[in-house]
């Protein structure tokens, strides 16, 4: 591996070079001296980065030989990325079909760090929704249709922890802001098989969302149709729900879920 020149603000590059250096050597345990020489870095600099990697469990040091090797945590991260890419690839044709049929924006979201994160979006020309819903954007779980679906994975103690850490902030006058209100809504979602956001996250926008299951029966994502309230009337939502539920089931089957125990049946 050829050494690379560094500027003063390239700490991230140095960290990645260390990870890649260890991986390229088949992750054989290596001494601090060998890593430093291989990367043309000072031992003190390398030690600082090695310590950071150990603190985050990406690196392990043998207490007897003092040699370093990578852990399987990198595989865990890679598997999560791979799963997200596979989910999006499988969902995209379905999302395009829904968007073409209803003429509204379609979103795919998963949970990360107690928030809903959009990992796929198929937009119409509606500028407001293009601003709200972009890949990588985050939204509270309690105020979005997809977020409430993801909360179906939570036990009551986990809901208490969410409230303690994130709270239930009022984004609009319609946002659920109490535990009792949230628990009641989640029970309703389990009964009916879909969720909605009635101007709870953004005034002027309404959505309906359905769960996406994996082979374990857990909700791994939410699939939603969102539009302005002038078009997304309650009548339209009622017209959309059966087709949307059907498409959610289709995507769930592609992920290995074929009915049986799910969060809707197990906890209702």
Automatic annotation (TrEMBL):
The lineage of its organism: Bacteria, Bacillati, Bacillota, Clostridia, Eubacteriales. Residues 73-257 form the IclR-ED domain. GO terms for molecular function: DNA binding; DNA-binding transcription factor activity. This is IclR family transcriptional regulator. InterPro entries: GAF-like_dom_sf, HTH_MetabolicPath_Reg, Tscrpt_reg_IclR_C, Tscrpt_reg_IclR_N, WH-like_DNA-bd_sf, WH_DNA-bd_sf. Residues 9-72 form the HTH iclR-type domain. It comes from Candidatus Gallacutalibacter pullicola. Keywords: DNA-binding, Transcription, Transcription regulation. It comes from the Bacteria. PANTHER family: HELIX-TURN-HELIX TRANSCRIPTIONAL REGULATOR, ICLR FAMILY, HTH-TYPE TRANSCRIPTIONAL REGULATOR RV1719. One of its GO terms (biological process) is negative regulation of DNA-templated transcription.
């Amino acid at each position: 591996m050829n050494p690379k020149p560094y500027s003063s603000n390239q700490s991230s590059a140095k960290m990645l070079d260390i990870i890649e250096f260890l991986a390229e050597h088949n992750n054989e345990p290596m001494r601090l001296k060998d890593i430093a020489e291989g990367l043309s870095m000072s031992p003190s600099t390398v030690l600082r980065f090695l310590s950071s990697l150990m603190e985050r469990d990406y690196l392990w040091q043998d207490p007897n030989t003092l040699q370093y090797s990578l852990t399987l945590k990198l595989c865990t991260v890679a598997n999560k990325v791979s799963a997200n890419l596979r989910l999006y690839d499988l969902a995209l044709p379905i999302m395009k079909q829904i968007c073409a049929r209803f003429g509204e924006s379609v979103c795919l979201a998963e949970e990360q760090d107690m928030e809903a994160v959009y990992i796929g979006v198929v937009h119409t020309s509606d500028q407001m929704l293009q601003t709200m819903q972009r890949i990588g954007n985050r939204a509270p779980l309690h105020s979005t249709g997809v977020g409430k679906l993801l909360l179906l994975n939570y036990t009551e103690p986990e809901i208490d922890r969410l409230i303690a850490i994130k709270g239930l902030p009022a984004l609009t006058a319609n946002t659920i802001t109490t535990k009792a209100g949230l628990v009641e809504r989640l029970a309703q979602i389990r009964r009916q098989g879909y969720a909605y956001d009635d101007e709870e996250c953004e005034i002027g926008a309404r959505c309906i969302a359905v769960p996406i299951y994996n082979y374990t029966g857990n909700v791994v994502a939410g699939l939603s149709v969102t539009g302005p309230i002038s078009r997304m009337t309650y009548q339209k939502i009622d017209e959309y729900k059966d087709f949307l539920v059907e498409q959610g089931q289709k995507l769930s089957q592609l992920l290995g879920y074929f009915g049986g125990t799910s969060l809707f049946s197990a906890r209702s």
